[in-house]
Each structure stands twice: as structure tokens, then as C-alpha cells.
Records
---
Amino acid sequence: SAVISQKPSRDICQRGTSLTIQCQVDSQVTMMFWYRQQPGQSLTLIATANQGSEATYESGFVIDKFPISRPNLTFSTLTVSNMSPEDSSIYLCSVWRLAYNEQFFGPGTRLTVL
Amino acid sequence: GIQVEQSPPDLILQEGANSTLRCNFSDSVNNLQWFHQNPWGQLINLFYIPSGTKQNGRLSATTVATERYSLLYISSSQTTDSGVYFCAGTGANSKLTFGKGITLSVRP
């Protein structure tokens, strides 16, 4: 499978502030994905992060609001900027493991914005 | 991209009962996975099953790719089976798209 860790596991933030979420994978991967799960909803892809290039964002998500870094093949960060209560969600990073032909997910970061 | 529909949206079972969860796709998928999201939010991989049938303990899954649907069977359900079950597929855009999930509650 894949060992994926995320920090922080949860946080409570004030509106207008920013939070950076870290994702660490136990081995090198080409693509890392960031998803958002709003309360009671399904998972929605925010962006795909490739090492050495800018992230590719899905419709409805923009780099100014969700900047992503991918400094190496095992690590990525997602920042949620200028937060509002509508950003309260679980944010999950994910990787595709070719050996298993499956996508695996980290434990998620539960964010509450007051 | 593809559309993923899951049914039923909610399911309540008595412990020991069996259930079938369904997933329909709007188009052909290259990859099809079933996940269980536990109450803490962790997504657990259950099956990678683009076609055919697989079994893992009390769980099994069948995908009929030509008819664009997949079924997840849970036998002798336990309270620990409670949570949300998602199916997800990858279409031509190579991005994993999730259904809305099925919320399962197993009562003792």
C-alpha cells in the first residue's frame, strides 16, 4: 500500500488567516493529489501536484486561494489562504501507486474556520 | 468527466444482515475503486476492481464493465462496518472521480 502522513491532523483557525497542510509519502511518487471534502459531501479534486512544475488546478479552484508546493518526490504542501467559514472541510492528499494500480489517501486534515 | 452514481444513499442494517451497494458510471472507466471512510475520516481502500469479481473476507465486489456498474457486497454485517462507502472511477481524463457515497449504519 502507501504510507501517507499529513500535518496537522486538525486545526481551528480564524477567518482571514492561512493554514499550510503538509503531506509526506513513504516513497517517491510522480503525482500527488489534493482533495477537499466539505461536511457531509463527497471528495472533490483540488489540484494535481507534479514535482518540478506548477500544480494543475481543477475548475473552481485557483492558485491564489490554494497555493501548492512540491519540492521533491515525497513531499507536498497545500495552503488554504484568506480562510472563511466555507473553507471548513477535510483536506486529503493522495498518491497513485503504480505497483498496486490504486490510489491511496492520507488521513486527512480536518479544518474548522471560525 | 465521468459521472458516478451510488445507491442507495443511506442504508440501515441490523447486525448480521447482508447488503448490496451499487455504483453506476456514465462512461467507461479505466480504474474503479471502492473505499470505506471510517468515522474519523480515514479512507480505507477496499477493492481495486475495474472488472470481474474479488473477495476479501466478508466483503466482495463485482464490476460489469460493459454495463458500467459495480456492486459491493457486505455479508454478516458488523457495527464496525458503519461509515460511508465510496466508489470512484478514472475516465479518459485520468482523474479519480467519486460518487456521493452511501452512508451505512449497522445497529447492534
Note: The mean pLDDT of chain B is 95.
---
Amino acid sequence: AQKVTQAQTEISVVEKEDVTLDCVYETRDTTYYLFWYKQPPSGELVFLIRRNSFDEQNEISGRYSWNFQKSTSSFNFTITASQVVDSAVYFCARDNQAGTALIFGKGTTLSVSS
Amino acid sequence: EAGVTQFPSHSVIEKGQTVTLRCDPISGHDNLYWYRRVMGKEIKFLLHFVKESKQDESGMPNNRFLAERTGGTYSTLKVQPAELEDSGVYFCASSQSTRTEAFFGQGTRLTVV
């Protein structure tokens, strides 16, 4: 299976700090999709972004931004000016070769204190 | 629009008993997935339905697990008989097509004692 690695198990920051969550993936495919999901304390996985392997432009959505570097097989996620509501577990994922399932990383638990 | 709903939210059963988890996908989503997260580990794929057909069940751990999706609407995942290592959070997700965003439910936390 092609792995997704989130090396940071837990990160703690104080409100208004910027924080970057790392994600490195393995692939032998030319075409693939990358994803980020957020799991707040309520438990459901909330979709944040999907990225096609052909689109290397960085993306910004409000305080969230994503840096896709194909050369290093990384898809990092930055939260600018973090808030307490950002506290959650964040999962990076990629689709499998058939596109029928997601391969998840172990997740990074982000704690933002006031 | 209602999201993906899962029942029950928690279940505690004894080893050897049977448990059935239910998932109601978003209306109109042909693709339905089951995943599981065992404590401290990755969320792992179990299987994928397209309508009522199993497209990929390569992630099912063993034959104690049986998933169905009669009529292509809701799905059930039965564990019989349950073992201690089956404890974890079982997630269901649905999507309109593959390779698009999948919408997840809140999960069912299963504890086998």
C-alpha cells in the first residue's frame, strides 16, 4: 500500500500563532488525489480540500492554506492566526490506485489554547 | 441536506456477541464506504459499495465481518462473533463518484469487552 505519513503526532500552540501540519505521501502513480480532513471533538470527519496531482498551485481558503510540492511528495497544511476552534485531529489522505478508497495518515492532534 | 448518519454512536458488547452497525448515506450518493480506526492507528479502509454491489472489500479483516447494502440505500456492517481486537471507531462515508470528496459520518465507537 502507498503510505501517507504525518510525522507530527501532537502540536500545541497558543491562539494567533501560525501552525503547519506536515504530510508526506508515497506514490507510483501519475494521477492521484490528495485530501485533508478535520476531525473536531464531535467525531465526524470534515472534508477540507481535495487536490489533483497535476495542479501544483498552492491554495488559500481564509486562514487555511495548502502547499503541494510534487518534487518532495508533500502536501502541507498551514493555519494562519490559529483559533481555539481549530483544535481537532487533522488527517491527510490520498486515494488508492483505483480511486476507490482513501489511504489515511495517522493524524495530527492540534491543540490551540487561549 | 442531511449528512451521513450512523447508528449507534456507541456500542459496548461482550466478546462473542454480535453487533450490527448501520449507515445512512447522503441521498443520491451511489458510493458508500466503511472505514475503521483502531486506537492509535490509521483510519483503514474496509470496503466500498457502488449502489448495492460490493466493488472492493479488500480491507475486510476476516469473515466475521459482513457488510450489506440492500436496495442501494443504507448499509449495515455486522460483526459476528465480536473479538477484543474489533474495538475501534467505525466510519461510514458516501460520495457521488469516486475520486471526489467523501462525506463522513460521526462514526460508531465499538468497544468489545
Note: Chain A touches chain B through 25 residues (CB under 8 Å).
